[in-house]
Amino acid sequence: LSPQRPYLAGDLHRPRYHFTAPQNWLNDPNGLIHWRGEYHLFYQHHPHSTDWGPMHWGHAVSPDLVHWRDLPIALFPDSPADRDGCWSGCAVEEGGLPVLMYTGVCAGEQRPCVAVGSQDLLEWSKHPANPVISDPPEGVRGSDFRDHSLWKEPDGWWYQVIGSARPGQGGFLPLYRSLDLVHWQPLGELLSAADLPVGSLPTGQMWECPSFFALDDRHVLLISAFDESVPGKLAYTLWMSGRYRDQRFVPQRVEKLDGGNAYFYAPQVMVDTQGRRLMFGWVGEGRSAAARAQAGWAGVISLPRSLFVDAQGTLCQRFVPELQALRGPEHRLSLAMDDAGEHALPMFGRAVELRLRVEPQGANQSGLLLACTPDGAEQTRLVLDWERGQILLERGRSSLDAEVERGDLSAPMPALRGGVLDIHCFWDHSVLELLAGDCAALTVRLYPTRADAEGLALFSDGPVHWDVQLWPMQAIWD
Ligand code: DQQ
C-alpha cells in the first residue's frame, strides 16, 4: 500500500497532485466520509481496464485532503444483488458503524444495497437483505433507479433520495425514510423536473448522483442531468438552492455548476468535523479509448472544494486551504499593461497553482496562455472577455493530437469586486481547475503532446492591471 503511481515513460498527462486510481478506470467519487479523523474517498472503479466496466468501489484515505494512501478495493460486484456492478452511493455512520448505501446492478436492474464496514473501513459485509428496496416507484424503469443521498433528521429517521426518471417526463427524486437503513418506507418526492421554475435549464431524461444537504441558511441540491437521446449527449451538473419544508424541496435558484461543462460530473458532498461541506467531482477524460489504454489509467478526482451560500442564495466554492501545503516558493508579480501585449511568466513545469487579481482598465479581452510551446503551436487560452461578460477556455490549439477533445468551454463572468476579478487556478498536467470570484468555475482536460508545452503568459488587448502569485506544486505521488 504505497502511495505510488506507475508513471509510464513519457506520460505527460498524469496528474501529480490530483487523485487518480492506481491504475485503470475511475469515475464518480463515492462514499465520502470523515471517519475517526481521516477523510475516506471511495470511487467508481474498473480495476481490469481503462474502460468503464463492471463497477467496483476503489478506496483511498487521507489525513489532510491532500495526501492519499490507497486502500484495498472496498466493494466487488460479487453478490446476487450486485453481480453486474456496485454503482454510486454514499457512506454514513449509524450506531457507531460505517454503512455504505450503493446501487446494486443485476441484469440491468438497479436497486439500493447496503454494506456494513469494520471500524478501519477495510472489511465490508453486504447485508443479507439486499436489495433493501425491492422495487422502484410505479412508472420508473429498473434501469433508472440509482445513486443515493442520505441524511438524518432530528426526528431520528434516516431519509434518502434516489436518482430516478419517468420515461418522457424527466428526472425526479423519490424520498424514503428508515430507522435502521435496511427497512425503508416510501414517502413521496423531494422534487421532480415538473416542479422546477418555468424557464429553468434543461435537466435531461435522468437525474444522476443527487446530493442534498443543508448549507448556511438554505438547502442545496446537486444533480447530474443525463440524457443520451440529445445529439452529442447531455451530461452536466446543476446546483439548486432553496427551502426544504414538509419533505419537499422548493428551489429558488437553479444554475449550472462549473459552467455546465461535462468535465465536472457526479460531484458528491461530505461534511467534516469542522462543519465544512466539501465537494469532490469526477473529472472525466477527453481522449480516445486507445489513448487511455496506452496511458494505463483514466479519470481524475477533482481537488476538494468547500461550499457556502451567499446572501443571494448563490452556491460558492473555494479550494480548501490545506492545498497550500504543496506550495513551493512563491513567485509574485505586479504588472500594469498600458496597451495590447503579452508578458511571459516564469515556468515551473506542469504542476502549478496560480492566483490572479485582474483589474480591467479599458481592455476588452485579457487572459492567460497556458501549456504553451515556445512557438505557440500548442497553447490553451483562458480569455477574460470583459465586454461580453464571459470567461472562455479556448482549447482549439491545446493539442496537436487531432483525436483529443478541443472544444471551447465557458462560464459567465462573475461580478467584479472593487473592479477586480479574483482567479484561483490549479494546473496539474492534463487537468485544469479554475474558480473565479467564488461562484464561477471551469474544469477541463488538456492533452498537449510536446514536452516543451509548459509556458505561461499574460495577454491583453488594452489596459489592465495584474497581481500574480504563482507556486510550483509538489507531487503527492512517488
Ligand atoms: N456513474 C455510476 C452511476 C451514476 C453514473 C456508474 C454517473 O451510479 O449514475 O458508474 O456518472
Automatic annotation (TrEMBL):
GO MF annotation: an example: beta-fructofuranosidase activity
Every Glycosyl hydrolase family 32 C-terminal domain range: 323-471
Annotated ranges, domain Glycosyl hydrolase family 32 N-terminal: 18-317
Any single GO BP term: carbohydrate metabolic process
Keyword Hydrolase: yes
Xref: SMART domains: Glyco_32 (SM00640)
Family according to the record: Belongs to the glycosyl hydrolase 32 family.
Keyword vocabulary terms for this entry: Glycosidase, Hydrolase
Family matches, as InterPro entries: ConA-like_dom_sf, GH32_Enzymes, Glyco_hydro_32, Glyco_hydro_32_C, Glyco_hydro_32_N, Glyco_hydro_beta-prop_sf
Top-level taxon: Bacteria
Descriptive protein name: beta-fructofuranosidase
Pfam families the record matches: Glyco_hydro_32C (PF08244), Glyco_hydro_32N (PF00251)
Record flagged with keyword Cell membrane: no
EC number(s) on file: 3.2.1.26
